[in-house]
Design brief:
Elements lengths: L4 H4 L3 H22 L1 H10 L20 H6 L15 E4 L9 E4 L1 H17 L7 E4 L7 H13 L2 E3 L6 H10 L4 E4 L1 H13 L11 E5 L5 H11 L2 E8 L4 E7 L6 E3 L4 E6 L13 E7 L10 E7 L1 E2 L11 E2 L4 E2 L4 E3 L2 E3 L1 H12 L5 E8 L2 E9 L9 H19 L4 E5 L6 E2 L2 E2 L2 E3 L3
Parallel strand pairs: 3-4, 3-5, 5-6, 6-7, 18-23, 19-20
Antiparallel strand pairs: 1-2, 7-8, 8-9, 9-14, 10-11, 11-12, 12-15, 13-14, 16-17, 18-19, 21-22
Helix pairs in contact: 2-3, 5-6, 7-8, 8-9, 10-11
The structure holds 5'-O-[hydroxy(phenylacetyl)phosphoryl]adenosine.
């Protein structure tokens, strides 16, 4: 088992010392090698030698997605391309993709941090791990692939496939762990039900899921349908990919790999740190990345630190599940709404995880919100009357809960556009 207790149960004091040393060295490297950061430091008058405590990080301006786009493709690389052994890009739905690179050592560390997360999620060398993320520019598949191999598990690189094929492989190859997005795991679970297969006849034990928001209800549904323990995993291309944070089997928040990532949580409006335990935007600084180091990156992801110790013994701090994104906050007729609120309402009325998309547009100067809801085996009904009733019920709940008169439309199964398996939640056509 790869559980390096010395590293993952480090004392707070030693961790902070290690973080400071790594921060200092990252700052020197970016100042020397990345013109964008050198200009930034010179503009605001920061001396790279002036970092004597972790608090000093607050002197550094934030790095935004826009900064990354403006430096497309290689502008923020801190090493020459000849030292880069891998390139990935973010699955951004708008504008230029963000291109990131890895040195040999970056890949080694990436492999190690993912191996830690897999171990925390129950995986050992005896497991058969089916990777159902797409292999390609997306970081999800390769990150988990290398991590699982390091543990010594048997890796099946299936990628995204027809769900029936996934199920056949699950059955025939005696897969014990599935790695995918939560919505894809649910699609597989529903396919198993449709095919009339008894989930107890499978060898599946664990699901390491992530890359998109999901709720506790959805976790329960996946766990019950697949008879597994499902853990949540968080990461992002700009910072590395998967491996930034992940849950242990206590499923009580995601341990951050704090020896490689310094995480702050800020109020997205005041840009100041929030009180411990309050919800805010995750800001990440890489501490060991060589090819693509990044300082105080505003992720746009909203969550909070979980206060207190975890019974597993790991001392790395935990974050709660990602609750939404700053850019997903919808302001419609002055009301602030998160897609997760709509998801909760759909869950209650529909009784199964909803695949949905929110469309915002404007007619005659008035904002309008439409929710497109994919039919599933739970809401598929040929009877128009039943469909009408469901739509009316959802409209009523949305009006009661959010105070917004919303159009609700049922659309065909799997007709909403997906990118790397993720549905784009909000499409704002108002600009
Ligand atoms: O999704 C990396 C990843 C792959 C993480 C596999 C976990 C598993 P990107 O495509 O760059 O990278 O998307 C990053 O996805 O900023 C979040 O908004 C969202 N996200 C990632 N993990 C979670 C999660 C990968 N567990 C963006 N819960 C992030 C909620 C997540 N949202």
């Amino acid at each position: 088992m790869i559980w390096d207790k010395e590293k993952e149960c480090i004392s707070r004091k030693d961790l902070m010392q290690l973080q400071l040393e790594r921060l200092q060295s990252t700052i020197h490297r970016v100042y020397k090698n990345v013109p964008f950061y050198r200009k930034m430091f010179d503009r605001v008058g920061i001396d790279p030698d002036s970092f004597s405590s972790l608090e000093d990080i607050k002197k550094i301006p934030f790095t935004t997605k826009n900064d990354l786009r403006e430096n497309y493709p290689y502008g923020l690389f801190a090493v020459p391309l000849r030292e880069v052994v891998r390139i990935h890009t973010s699955s951004g739905t708008t504008g230029m993709p963000i291109v990131v690179g890895y040195t040999k050592n970056d890949i080694k560390i990436w492999t190690e941090v993912v191996a830690r997360i897999l171990t925390a999620g129950g995986i050992t060398k005896d497991d058969v791990v089916q990777i159902a993320f797409s292999y390609g520019l997306f970081t999800g598949a390769f990150g988990f692939h290398y991590g699982a191999e390091k543990i010594g598990a048997s890796v099946i690189p299936v990628s995204i496939e027809n769900p029936k094929k996934q199920v056949k492989i699950l059955q025939d190859y005696k897969t014990t762990a599935i790695v995918s997005t939560p919505s894809y795991a649910l699609l597989i679970a529903n396919t198993i039900i449709e095919l009339g297969i008894n989930p107890n006849s499978l060898s599946l034990k664990y699901g390491l899921l992530g890359a998109e928001p999901w709720s506790e209800q959805m976790r329960k549904e996946i766990e019950e349908k697949l008879k597994i323990v499902a853990t949540d995993n968080y990461g992002l291309t700009e910072v590395m990919g998967p491996g930034v944070a992940g849950e242990c089997l206590y499923k009580n928040g995601l341990h951050i790999n704090e020896d490689h990532f310094l995480v702050e949580i800020i109020d997205p409006e005041s840009l100041q740190s929030v009180q411990e335990g309050e919800v805010g935007e995750v800001v990440i600084t890489t501490l060991t990345k060589e090819a693509f180091p990044i300082l105080r990156f505003r992720t746009g992801d909203l969550t909070r630190f979980i206060v207190g110790d975890c019974p597993c013994g790991r001392t790395f701090r935990r974050i709660d599940r990602i609750m939404g994104r700053t850019d997903d906050m919808i302001i419609i007729k002055g009301v602030k709404i998160f897609p997760s609120q709509i998801e909760a309402i759909l869950y209650e009325t529909e009784g199964a995880h909803p695949n949905f998309q929110i469309i915002l547009d404007r007619e005659a100067g008035v904002d309008r919100m439409t929710v497109l809801l994919e039919m599933s085996e739970f809401i598929f009904s040929d009877v128009m009357k039943e469909q009408d009733m469901l739509v009316k019920q959802i409209k009523k709940r949305l009006l009661e809960e959010l105070g917004i008169d919303t159009e609700v439309k049922l659309v065909e199964k799997r007709s909403l556009e997906r990118l790397e398996g993720k549905i784009r939640r909000v499409i704002d056509k108002r600009e």
